[in-house]
Amino acid sequence: AAGGIIASIIGTFAVRVGNKPQMEALLGALRYGTIAASILTAAFSFLAVYFLKADIGVFWAILVGLIAGILIGESTNYFTSYAYRPTRNISEASQTGAATNLTRGFSNGLMSTLPPIICISIAIFLAYNFAGFYGIAIAGIGMLSTLGITLATDAYGPVADNSGGIVEMSGLPHEIRERTDALDSLGNTTAATGKGFAIGSAALTALALMLSYTQMVGIEFSRFTLLEPRVLIGLLIGAMLPAIFCSMTLTAVGRTAFSIINEVRRQFREIKGLIEGTARPEYGKCVDICTKAALKEMIAPGLMTLIAPIVVGLLLGPVGLGGFLMGAITTGFLLAVTMANAGGSWDNAKKWIEAGNYGGKGSDAHKAAVIGDTVGDPMKDTSGPSLNIMIKLMSIIALVLAPVFVGFPGLI
């Protein structure tokens, strides 16, 4: 991981785009930086394994994680960037209204689960064969070792967005606005890529924790089968939980947005001169609503994540809890990828229209794309990323409580 940080710093020097604002050039520059950082990380990892006299299988597991991370990142770029066909198809569908925009965007998010699932499956198989359960965990570290450069590109997204606003308000030439728009769109894509890295590593980490749990409670592989009713019941409950979690977080965003919109309408209605721009809005009221809602609305999802493994373990025993974790990891990974990529593609589909395609800003297609972007924001920024924490936290809770469940048959 330390070598990955150094490699990411060096990899930033490989990012060069010149004066080309096209998305293809920007993505290509970041791709070179990521690949350079990955090659250096692999070299540092080999040296560390060699001088520490560790098993060479550990190095191969790290390499598997690195390659899987690069492939997942490329898959995310393909499904969320307007440089490629899937996102442009969403822009095209916006010409016939919001319904077709939403349908095409959600189908794109579902289709985007195919490459990450294949990559993670191959990574698990190879890492386990190279270094056992430890190899699966170390593959997750390898996947995240170059996250320094990915997070750096992700962090500039809001900077580019605000720069675009300053350019527009300052009345600077149109070509400058084009460059900031391209950087803003790239920020959306790299944000989705960062989420892809985080989701993939979360799945590998949660799986490694779950396997550690099965070893601590002494579950034999012969008992951990779908023919065992407790395992099947736990699997179904675990598969359900991420969907309930997403429902709760999306509902929380909806309630908060409802309160803020009502507050804004109240201010327009009661503060004289606000519409004309001669009066100052009460910004603090909106900030207060957001802050309180952010804390209050996460109490129920957080408690559910903490309590569910304990309840399942008490009712179904250690075998049932193992099935519960497996179901939660599988469904959580699928939902997280779907929501992150669907939201990113809706956002960039709007950017593609704003670049002058299908009528440009203010057209009916643009209005439909704005609706799709609004729907996608809570999916890619709230529900999707929070599922990573959910599946890892439940696995950690199960592992911590493993000594309690050893030899416990369950209440049912």
Secondary-structure topology with pairs:
Blueprint: H1 2-11, H2 23-51, H3 56-80, H4 85-93, H5 98-111, H6 114-144, H7 147-170, H8 174-216, H9 229-270, H10 283-296, H11 299-354, H12 364-400, H13 402-405
Helix pairs in contact: 1-2, 2-3, 3-6, 3-8, 4-5, 4-11, 5-11, 5-12, 6-8, 7-8, 8-11, 8-12, 9-10, 9-11, 9-12, 11-12
How would you portray this structure in words?
This protein has 412 residues and is mainly α. The chain has one domain (2-405). It has 13 helices and no strands. The protein has helices at 2-11, 23-51, 56-80, 85-93, 98-111, 114-144, 147-170, 174-216, 229-270, 283-296, 299-354, 364-400, 402-405. Helix 6 packs across helix 8 (174-216), helix 7 packs antiparallel against helix 8 and helix 11 (299-354) packs antiparallel against helix 12 (364-400). The model has no long low-confidence stretch (mean pLDDT 86).
Number of strands: 0
Instruction: Report Rg.
Output: 23 Å
- What portion of the residues fall into strands of 2 or more residues? under 5%
CA-CA gap between termini: 44 Å
- Biggest sheet character: none
Instruction: Average the pLDDT over all residues and give the rounded result.
Output: 86
Helix content: over 70%
Shape: globular
- List the helices and strands in order: HHHHHHHHHHHHH
Derived from helix and strand composition plus strand pairing, the structural class reads mainly alpha
How many domains, in number, for the residues? 1
Low-pLDDT stretches are: none
How many helical elements?
13
